[in-house]
Specification:
UspA; globular; single chain; alpha/beta; about 140 residues; Rossmann fold
Length: about 140
């Protein structure tokens, strides 16, 4: 059975619902969970290196604080469910790539993700990271709606 679950989160209500389902499932099967939040890297071009360093540092602080807002509640859910859980931040231009890479690097044997249920034009414009993970991952993916 599954021993290590990757749980990506974007902080949405759908992600929190998936996290609750994931924790119940992990508790039932005795699996541990790694929760990950993916953020885009900062791409900044300037001729002033000092400005770049300051902007990057501010970006890192804000990024880390926001990630903690999303990840700490998941760690608390895990603790309440008596599930071993670690939290991490990943950086990538394409979140689905970071999710798959993190699952592989952390030796996860299942990815549990939320589906936002977007359809039609909205799905085409915004895209679906869940769909991309489903398409590209060799690791099983459980989608929570």
């Amino acid at each position: 059975m599954f021993q290590h679950i990757l749980l990506p989160t974007d902080g949405s209500d759908a992600s929190l619902a998936a996290a609750r389902s994931c924790m119940r499932f992990a508790a039932q099967i005795g699996a541990r969970v790694t929760a990950v939040h993916v953020v885009p890297p900062l791409h900044l071009f300037t001729y002033e290196p000092v400005v770049t360093e300051q902007v990057h540092e501010t970006y890192r602080r804000n990024r880390d604080a926001r990630a903690q807002e999303f990840l700490v509640p998941i760690a608390q859910m895990a603790q309440e469910a008596s599930v071993a859980c670690n939290i991490m931040l990943a950086e990538a231009d394409e979140p689905y790539e970071a999710i798959i890479r993190t699952a592989r690097d952390q030796m996860c044997d299942l990815i549990v993700m939320a589906s936002h249920g977007r359809k039609g034009v909205r799905a085409m414009l915004i895209g679906s990271q869940t769909q991309r993970v489903l398409t590209h991952s060799t690791i099983p993916v459980l989608v929570c709606r």
